Amino acid sequence: MPTISFLRKDLERFLGRAAAPEQLESWLPLVKGELKDVNAATGEMRIELQDSNRPDLWSVEGIARQIRIKAEGAPRAYPFVQRKTRPARRVVVGNGMDKVRPFVAACAATGMPVTEEDLAHLIQTQEKLADGYGHRRRTVSVGLYRLPRIQFPVTYELVKPTEARFTPLGFSEPMTLKDILAAHPKGIEYGSILAGQPLLPLLRDKAGEVLSLPPIINSADIGQVEPGDSELFVEVTGTDAHMVLLTLNIFAVNFADRGAAVEPVEIQYPYDTPWGTSVATPRDINDAQRVPLKSIEDALGLAMDADMARDALRSYGYDVTTARDALTVRLPCYRHDLMHPVDVAEDVAISRGYDSFTPVMPAHFTVGALSEIERMSDHLRDHMIGQGFQEMCSNILMSREELVERMRLTPADGDRVVEVDNVMSQSFSCLRSWIVPSLLRIEAASPRAFYPHRLFEIGEVERPDAGTVTGSRTRTRLASLIAHPHANFSETHTCLDVLMFYLMRDYALEPVDHNSFMEGRAGTILCNGHPIGLIGELHPAVLENWGISMPVSVFEIEVDSLCGEEGAGSSSTSG
Amino acid sequence: MNSASDSLHPLEITLLAALGQSADAPSSDDELRERSQLAPSQISMALGWLQAKTLIRVHAETVTVWVGLTEVGRGYLVTGSPPEWLVQRCRQGAHEGRPLTVQTLQDADTFPPSDISRAIGLLKQEGAIRLTAGGHVEPTGAASPTAERFAALLNQLRERRRELPSFAPDEQTLLRQYAVKRGSAQKPFRIEERIRREYVLTEDGKAAAQRCRAEAADGRGAVNDVAQLTPAMLKDGSWRGARFRKYTISLRPPRVAPGRRHPYRAFLDLVKHQLVGMGFREMRGPLVETEFWNMDALFMPQFHPARAIHDVYFVKTPTHAARIDEPFLSSVAAAHEHGGDTGSRGWGYRYDAERARRLILRSQGTAVSARTLASKPLVPGKYFSMARCFRYDQVDATHATDFFQVEGIVLGDEIHFRTLLGLLTLFAEEMAQAKERAFLPAYFPFTEPSVELHVRHAQLGWMELGGAGLLRPEVTRPLGVTAPVIAWGLGLDRMAMVALGLHDIRDLFSTDLEKIRALRGRFA
User: Fold this and answer.
1) What distance in Å separates residue B40's CA from the closest CA in chain A?
2) Are B321 and A471 in contact (CB < 8 Å)?
3) Which residues of chain B does A469 touch, with a Cβ-Cβ cutoff of 8 Å?
């Protein structure tokens, strides 16, 4: 979600009216904007835009436009998107471009001497669109140039990396394309987009002067726009035809709103595009769509006549004509986010204002219930608390050191854990496979908490299991820990015994060699002959690994094993 | 009849008596110790109780500095101080015609070598010894003032410690120079500060002491009171003749650590019971998810910036699930590519079925709802989950490595935008006890229309309580659901934190047992 910043007076310039803070607050829902902060001294405000499908709103012009349409009741026209005469300026696309970076769109903006502020906004919009919407320039990138320096037609074609040379922005000497990719900061940052391409895309004018190496860097000459320039050229290149054209359309309407005359450019392709081989840009990209009135009514839960819906949509920028039970709608050229009639319904709701809708309580009767595993977990929690245990709540991400190494687990004990590939911190690199390490982490951190310590936690763990579709299984487990100077097997065994008595489960302990526990003081807990957990006194070496200087006994059982089919068939006569 | 000693502990009675001996004159703690014969810990305990009951008060508090002998100092009483010992040994050696070297003196092992060196330096300076060419130490015959002063001081402190100001200034300097301050340095003297308090009886205290004396005289004193009723007394009936000491019930009891729910879990229990009360059924899902269920099924395109808001953890091995169940893989792929039969134009890109199988740690609870939608949910139906989610974020006061998301869905023919607002109103009132709320347009890739619910919370002011919307047909249809569906999620951690008085989200998962034992919350 992009955050953009501008001055209050910028907003007011494009709104054509004052923007008092409380008024701004009432307008921001129209653009799904959240005011992050306002600098009272400078009037600078930062607004976060939520809708990633509305890149037209990622500029002060766009925000003002949406608000202005609401205030004026209908959108202004941008006539340059309708082709009337053939543009004088052309960009000619070379062969093979369809394999590298197929699409380009461009226009000229004249008659507007750019100020320093204009330039700052243009660059902010360029960055937000290329970075956010254009996936860090991979799908879409934008270049701005000084129009008078360009001799048309411009060519957009592939060249050998060692053949062409130009002076990139920020440098003073001509470099080959290969050197730019290897040495220029932008080449290093964005070079991966062109990795593996034997030939690179290059924009040059009729005289062979380089405009840029898209999507990497402009030339330091033609591509260096400065305050005072009043004739600009803007081009967008990329891999998605609609996104490229939409981005240019956004720039074109932003230029127009700034007072420039937008002059279309014709793009000539040697291959086909959604709009043919000869495309004048900017241009409309949206078709008119028929939307049944009922689909809007059903979605909003509100009966409305076609005129109501039409007014709401017009004052949100749509081009609308009405029939008796349907609307024919068309988005403005700077939007391309109408995928389904529900999108129209939302725009009706936003345009009318969410507060204008009266909430209705859902009335259908439904039965609430906890899952069986949650009911069993709550049951176990009650029993553990009754036995004097403090419940704990730990993070599930831990380290392999905690889960395996400190516990002295060997392959025989089951030392596999689900690990994260893109590790941010070793401390959070594995999903816990059991809960005893979580409780030991607490014990290790709490030697000054007065004793005895009786802790338990019921929570999820991830158990590697090659037999499943995902290679692991999420299980819910209960672990308990007792620590004090005389903590031993017997005390923990008593707790387990009491628990199993009230669960009405027969169980048996079978001695087990497990590296986390002292030899001869550990057992597998069997329920109906199936292992459901472990009990024992922790090995002094484990305690030493954790820096714990208190004897500790634990048990851990799988809650899933006590539920449903797995838990059924056990004795109800014990005791 | 009430006796004065009824409410007094035997220790208190003993101390009152000790204080009473000096009538109106204040008594120091030392004096009280002598008179009462109680241990210092007992005295300080009883003094605290009596002060709490305003039977006594502190009359004066003086800080005194005392000097006494350490173990090393007691040793000097036998050997003499190093300078004294050294002078004597030298004289003895000279007398026997065996002049001593520095080495032999150090090897004598009576004092640490550093003490010997220091003493040699001092005595040389005072002219009591001299070092000759052969490394011999010879007495000059002159006396060492320091050795003599040392001997005198040791002697004065032989029996008991004394107040430092009782010594002459040059003596004080020497004492300080050779005194232990802290730790285990090998020094003969120890200087300590002591706070000496003097206590007097208050008027109530005098009356209580008076009554205690009277009661002690006629045999009604607390000395004969029984502390504990025993089974034997009940059996033989001897309780009838016994007098039971009355307790000071205003004192704090001993501490125990009870068994208890984790306070954050207790908060989540409340939430879960509220949801069940509103007719929601709990759902659960796996921690390790596929990108398919976490994102694709929610109509988040595989290569769109909407996906960037979910920075996720990827699983190392296996990297991919074995399969995604049909018909969901195909129907979701169609929705992404061209809309399939959802009435949508789709995202218009080539769907990557391989990427769909990529395993990740669940990044949003809505994945659980997606799975529920694909499992023939009840219509009408309400579902919720409290799903542990993982985000690839730096851990700080507002970001935990993994956290609970409370989210769910509501299905039914009655579902539309206004019932969505109705449900959110219910949440605002039930979950946040908020009378004021606001609905703001929002963006989620899987809902349209989308809403943010803001409420005015009693402590936090205006806050975002949750996000919701109507699931897009591109989400529901491919999973086999034709009814309209609300998807909702609540952000309750801030409310939990304010209820528990916490400011750092990490404290909800604290590993500090004392902290957890002390955490209390105003909820439930």
Assistant:
1) 25
2) yes
3) 321-323
| Confidence grade of residue A395 (pLDDT, cut at 50, 70, 90) | very high
First to last CA, chain B: 47
End-to-end CA distance of chain A: 61
CA–CA distance, B383 with B277 (Å, rounded to integer):
12
> Which residues on chain B are in Cβ contact (under 8 Å) with A420?
313-316, 361
Chain B CB within 8 Å of residue A362 CB: yes
Interface membership of A425 toward B (CB under 8 Å): yes
Select the residue of B282, B309, B314 nearest A420 (Cβ to Cβ): B314
CATH of B4-62+196-222, one of 3.40.640.10, 1.10.760.10, 1.10.10.10, 1.10.287.990: 1.10.10.10
Average pLDDT over residues B401-407: 92
Say if A382 is an interface residue toward chain B (CB within 8 Å): no
Give A400's contacts in chain B (Cβ within 8 Å).
Answer: none
For chain A, the structural domain boundaries read: 3-72, 79-281, 289-354, 372-567
Q: Which residues of A171-194 are buried (b: 16+ CB within 10 A; e: fewer)?
A: beeebebbbbbeebebbeebeebb
Residue range A47-84, pLDDT digits in tens: 999 988 899 999 999 999 999 999 998 888 898 888 77
Domain A372-567 listed as CATH 3.40.50.300: no
Residue in A385, A446, A469 closest to B260 by CB: A385
* Shortest CA gap A417–chain B (Å): 10
Q: Which two tokens stand for residue A129?
A: 């669109």
- What fold is seen in the domain A79-281? Phenylalanyl-tRNA Synthetase; Chain B, domain 3 (3.50.40)
Is A342–B419 a contact, with Cβ atoms under 8 angstroms apart?
Answer: no
State pLDDT tens for residues B333-353: 999 999 999 999 999 889 999
Q: Where are the beta strands (DSSP E) in A490-538?
A: 508-511, 517-527, 530-538
What is the per-residue pLDDT across A257-279, written as a single tens digit (0 to 9) for each? 999 999 999 999 999 999 999 99
Residues forming a β-bridge with B282: B384
Give this complex's ipTM. 0.92
Architecture of domain A3-72: 2-Layer Sandwich (3.30)
Q: Phi and psi for A554 in degrees, rounded to 5?
A: -140, 160
pLDDT in tens, B368-387: 999 999 999 999 999 999 99
Confidence of residue B223 (pLDDT cuts 50, 70, 90): low
| Residue A273 pLDDT | 94
Query: Under an 8 A CB cutoff, do A360 and B418 touch?
Result: yes
Does A139 sit within 8 Å of B418, measured CB to CB? no
Q: What is the pLDDT of residue B397?
A: 83
With 0-12 / 13-18 / 19 or more C-beta atoms within 10 angstroms meaning exposed / middle / buried, residue A153 is middle
A22–chain B Cβ distance below 8 A for any pair: no
Domain ranges of chain B: 4-62+196-222, 69-194, 265-286+364-518
Q: Do B509 and A472 touch (CB under 8 A)?
A: no
- For the segment A178-203, the average pLDDT, to the nearest whole number, is 93
